[in-house]
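Fold this sequence, please.
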Amino acid sequence: MIKFNIKPLKYIDNSKRYKSFLSSHEIRKRFIDYFVKENNHKYIKSSPVVPYNDPTIAFVNSGMCQFKNVLLGQRTLEANCIANSQKCIRVGGKHNDLNIVGSDGYHHTFFEMLGNWSFGHYGKAEACGLAWNLLTLPPFNLPKKHLYCTVFKGDKSLGIESDDETRHIWKQIGVSDNNIIMCGASDNFWEMGEIGPCGPCTEIHIDYPPSDGKNLIELWNIVFIQYSRENKTSIHKLPNYFIDTGMGLERLTMVLQNKTSTYDTDLFSPIFNRIFNVYGKSKYTGLFDESSLDTYYRIMADHGRMITVALSDNMLPSHNHKLRRIMRKSFLLTETHFKIQPGYTLLYDIADEIVNSLGDTYPELVENNKKVKYLIKHEYTIFNKLRMSVSKDWKIIIEKYPVLRKFNPYEECTGFVPACSYLIKHKYLNHIPAFTMYDAFGLDKKTIGKLAETIGLSVNWNEFEMQLRNLQTKSIKCIQKVSNNYSMQNIPKTDDSYKYKITRHSNQTYVSPVVTAKLLAIIDMNGNIVTEPDITKHGVIVSLVLDKTCFYSKAGGQQHDIGTVKTNNGKIFNVNDVEKIQENGIVLHFINSIDWPILLNEKELTIEINSNHRLGLMRAHSSVHILHAVINSHLVVTTQLSSCVKNNFLSFSFALFGQTFSPEDALLVEEKVNNLIQSGASVKRTTMTSNDLNQIKVTLLPGEVYPDDQVHVIDIYNDIDDLYISREACCGTHIQNTLDVIDFCIVQYKCLAHECTLIALTGPLCKDARINGEKVLNKSNNLEGILNSITLNNITPTKVNILLDHMNQLKLELKNISKNYIPLNIQIQIKKKILATERNIQRLVKEKKKKILEDAVKKLCEDSYAIGYVDCDMAYFLDDDYFDFEHVKNICGEVPCLFLTYNNKKIHVYFHIPKEAPVDEKWLDDFWYKFNIKSIKFKNKSAYKFIEFKVKQENKYKAREIINDVIQYAKNYFNIMK
C-alpha cells in the first residue's frame, strides 16, 4: 500500500463539497445495505474485539480475523459472499503506534473496518466494480476524477508478474491512466504472515482536498488472495482465490462529511462535547499542537472509545496489560490535564456517549454499560492503591537512575517498580536478567528491552528463550512424555465421540452404550509400548490405547469417567483413570492389575463406563453452568476463574472485582439455582465452528482459545418462558433436563479479597448433607440448653468447661465438612449459635468475675485506706490473665488503694491516689523498691487516678512473700500516720 504522510488538512473549499451531509450511522448502514440487500452478500455481525480462536493476537485488529481459518483453507462457510462492519483495536505493531494517537488527525486505537469478502464466488472485476460503484454513485457521490487506484507491478524476487488484469479492469471501469499507480510488493502485496495465504492488492485513494494527486488518502484496500507462501522463497498459486476488502469507516466519514480530520466527524464531536460538559473550561477547537489541550481531547476521546468497546466485549484489564495501560494513561490524563478528580469520572461520561453513538450498531455496548462503568471505577481503585504504595519507592529509584524518568510507573505492570528496585540492588549486573524480569516481576519482552536500552545494559535473549523453554518443559505432565512414541508409531487418534452418546430414561437415569473397540497398544508408565508380558519390567499399572472409546478424559474441569474393559472370555479390568494427549488426540485408559499381560493376545475389548458415576459428573457439570449464570446475574461483573467437577460434587471460583459476596448472597444464589433446576429446563448440546459462536449470545471464558473446527455449546433452555438460562461453550458431559440434577446444596463458602469459591453437592449427596446438618444443628440446640441452665449464681468452672467442650466439638465438625458435608445455611445457623453462646458465656464470666472481685475488695476497705491481697483465684478459671479493677475503683471511695493479686505467673497491681492526698506518697516506697520500678512522680494527680501493673514472677511462693511485704509496709505507714 502507498504510504503517504497524511497530516490534518488545513483547508477544504466548501464550494467543492461532494454531497449533502451523511451521518456516520447512515454511511455504515449504506455500506451494509449496498452489499447485503443489493448485491446478495450475507451480513455477519462484528466479532468481539477479544480474539477467542486466535492466540497469536491480543485484539481483533482487522475485519479478516474472524475469517482467518477460511482464508487458510481450514474450513468453509455456508455463505460465499460476506459483508460486515468489524470493531477493531490496534495498539502498537506495524499498523499503528499508540504514542501517535492524538497528535495527528487519523490515528486511532479503536476503529471500524467496513469489509466485504468473496470465498471463491466472484473475482477481481466484480470486486473492483462493487467498490467503485458504491463510492461514486449516490449517496456517496465521490468524484471519479479525484479517485486514484494503486496496482501491484510485480516482483521478480517473488516470481510474480505485474497484475495487469487489475490494471485493465480499472481502465475498463473508467479510471484514467494518470489515476492508476503501479506499486511494488511493499505497498501492494498482502501477506497474512511469514507463511500462508497472500496475494496482490489494489487500493482506492482519494485526492483530498483536490490537489492534482498530491494529497492521496487511502480509502479502500481490496486484496486478491491468489497465492500461498510455503517459506521465504517459495510461493505457489492457489486453485481458487478469495477477495478480502477493508475500508476504515472513520476515514470515509471524514471525506464524506468534508472534514479536515477524522476527529472532526460526528464519530467524535459528541464525545468532545461530553468532555467539555464535564471539564467546563475550554472547548475542543481542532488545533494540532502537541502541547495544546486539543491533543488531550483527542486522546481521551480515542482511548475512551477503545476502553468502552473492549470492556463491553468482556475483555478484562487483568487479562490484557495493554488495555490496563491505556486505562491508567487515561486516568492520569484526566487528573493532570483536565484537572478532574477522581480520574475515572470522565471515562464514565465518555462511556455513556459511546453507547449513544454506537449502541444501535453494537447492542452489547448498551447491555454491558453498567458493567463497563463498574470495571472503570474498579480499575481506578487498583491504580490509585498502586500509586500510593509505589510512589516512595519510585522516588528512590529515579534518584539513583534519573534516566528512568521516561517511564511512567503507574502505567506499567505492578511488578515494574519492584523490578527496578531489584536492578538497583544488583547494580553490578553485566546484563539485564530478562527471565527474572519476566518470571518474577511480570514484565513483558518489550518492556524488558526498553528498560535495558534506557539503563544501558544488554539482554541475552537466547538465554531468556532457553530458560523459558526449560520452565515450560517442567510444567508438562509426565504422561505427555509418551507423545513422541505415539507419533513414531503412527497410532491414530482415538475416536472419543461416543462419550456424548448416552440415553436418558424417564426415571431420571442414564445409560451409556457398551462399545466394542480395537486394542491398538499397551503403554507402561514410562511411555514405552509394551510388547512382552513382563510385569517386573513394566509394572502393574499400564494404559490401553483403543481405536474408539466412550470414556470421558479429564477436561474443562470435569474429572474422568471410571468403568471396565472386558475381554472376549469375560475377564474384567477396572479403568480407574483416563487421560487424553492433546498433541495427537490419543486417549489412555489406565488399569492396575497383575493380569494385564493376557491383554497382549486380545484384539478387541468391550468397554463400558460406570453410568452412576457419569450421571454424578453430568449433574455437577450442568449445575456449574446454572450456578455461573446465576452469579453473573447477581453481580455487576464477574468471571469464572476455575471449576472442578466430580461425582455429584463441584467447586466454582469466580472473580469479585471489589464487590462483596457474603454467605447470605451464596444462599440467595443457591435458592435461584434450585428454582431453575426445578423448572425442568432442557439441556442440549450443539456443535458449531468458532465463527458461528460470534453469531449467538454465548458465555465464553476470557483467555480461552476455542477450536476453529468444532466447538460444543451447552444450551439450558426454559421452553415455558422461552428463555435461555445458560448458553456456554463447553466440552463436558451434561444431563438432558435440569430436573435430573434433583437437588443443589452449597456446603462451603470461602471469600478472599479478589475472589470467591463455592463448593456444592448435587443429587443424592444433598440429602445426606442435609441429614448430617440436622444432626449437627441439634447438637447446637443442646448447646443453647446448657447455656440457659447456667446463671450468675450457679456458674462454675466445670459448667463452663463442659460448655466450651461442646462448642469446640461443633467447631471441629464445621471445620471437617469435607468428610461430613453440612449445608451452608445450617453452617450459618450453627456459627450464629456458637457466636451467641460465646458472647453469653463471656458476659456471665465477666459478671461473675466482677462480683467476686467486688466482694474481695470490699473486705479490704478501711476508713482511711484500702490495702491488701485480693484473693480471686476461684473467679479466674478461664486462666485469661485479666483482672478488671476498673469496675471496682469506686467501691472504697476517695481513699488510697493498693491491691495486689497473683495469677498466671504474674503479679497484678492496682493503686489509686485520691486527688486530695499529700504529694509525698511514701506509702508506695516499698512497692517501687520491691518490684524494682522507677517511682512515678504524681505531678498531676488527676492524670494518675489509678494505675495497673503486671509484674512477671514465676515463683508463686516468692510472689506471695513480696506481696505480703509490700502490703505490710503500706499498712504500717498509714497506721503510723494516724
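The longest strand covers residues 216-229. Residues 1-17, 474-488 have pLDDT under 50 and may be disordered.
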